[in-house]
Amino acid sequence: MSRDRAFSSEVDTGSRQENASKQECQAFGVYVHWPFCLSKCPYCDFNSHVRHAAIDEARFASAFAHEIAATAERAPGREVTSIFLGGGTPSLMQPATVGAVLDAIGKHWCVAGDVEVTLEANPTSVEATRFAGYRSAGVNRVSLGVQALDDASLKALGRMHSAREALDAVAIARRSFDRYSFDLIYARPDQTPAMWADELRLAISEAAEHLSLYQLTIEEGTPFFGLHQAGKLKTPDEAVARALYDVTQETCDRLGLPAYEISNHARRGAECRHNLVYWRGEEYAGIGPGAHGRLDIDGIRHATATEKRPEAWLMRVETNGHGVVTDELLNSEERADEFLLMGLRLTEGIDPERYKALSGRPLDPKRIALLREEGAITVDATGRLRVTSSGFPVLDAVVADLAA
């Protein structure tokens, strides 16, 4: 499937572009959730599922197309600036399935010429031929779930690949795509700051432009939660976790991948545009089992969510044309609080005037002054509010204080 074919449309392109021109020029993302994995990692609380029987990809592709059509009918005239195929493990899909999904998006919305199309992949499902197929289908960026670069940690995390396989997968991504990223988890059991610094330097030497670096969290309902409660899984204490965070910031800054979001690091201009849609409070459509969306319909922000169970979602779409089970209207206060919560994750911070426009009230100047005095935030000459490097480790408290 060619790159042009991936975004072909059977409807009049001119009419779609005319509709798009009526929209204010804003980012609009489409998130597509592929919910299947080869195995379930013991730390993962994402909506992911293991199926031992073959997945009927053609049936799922058809359902994705129907839900895309139904969503576009509710939110017409948008120009898609980013698409993110997440999971689960989207790299378990055949390239033809990915192409069919992208075709459906191109059929119902106008797609920007420089659209960013990201696909998540695990090293165990990376093959050069498959990546070439994704590229031909229209994918132009991949994000690899590497998670660690030493075999002992990978085994402890329940990963099915080795460190060598992970680096080989990164090399395939480098040959196949101009843009690629990979994830690592830190604050792992028995990890020291010195060990993490060495691993991080290796990671940055392999990363062209972007890394996502997440601190291990113990989520209720996961196998790790039970082990942690029983004292069989020990994670670094608060002091060591803070030292690991500090090593992350210092090493990435020094080697040219500074943080642009609390857990994401990139060279200038290489930020993940799709994730910026979330953090900047823009619109996005959520397609597939358990996908969330934020759509502006008749001037009101809708928070949508679809059925999480894959087979139940499939039946809902085949019966109703969509799998949406939640469609909440966000009031001005809720929308402003969400903007604050997401926007302050970014090192670029937020414009308090936008918060005021959303909520109908300004942020409390006394609280801003106190947080500035404590060194948790700064306010520049234009009035833009940013969390400082010392404020980021206590971001939740900063947001709660400002929102109160």
Automatic annotation (TrEMBL):
The keyword 4Fe-4S applies. Keywords: 4Fe-4S, Chaperone, Cytoplasm, Heme, Iron, Iron-sulfur, Metal-binding, S-adenosyl-L-methionine. Its main location: cytoplasm. One of its GO terms (molecular function) is coproporphyrinogen oxidase activity. InterPro entries: Aldolase_TIM, Coproporphyrinogen-III_oxidase, Elp3/MiaA/NifB-like_rSAM, HemN_C, HemW-like, rSAM, rSAM_sf. GO terms for cellular component: cytoplasm. Signal peptide: none annotated. Residues 22-258 form the Radical SAM core domain. It comes from the Bacteria. Its cofactor is [4Fe-4S] cluster. It is found in: Cytoplasm. It holds the Pfam family Radical_SAM. One of its GO terms (biological process) is porphyrin-containing compound biosynthetic process. PANTHER family: COPROPORPHYRINIGEN III OXIDASE, RADICAL S-ADENOSYL METHIONINE DOMAIN-CONTAINING PROTEIN 1, MITOCHONDRIAL. Belongs to the anaerobic coproporphyrinogen-III oxidase family. HemW subfamily. Probably acts as a heme chaperone, transferring heme to an unknown acceptor. Binds one molecule of heme per monomer, possibly covalently. Binds 1 [4Fe-4S] cluster. The cluster is coordinated with 3 cysteines and an exchangeable S-adenosyl-L-methionine. This is Heme chaperone HemW.
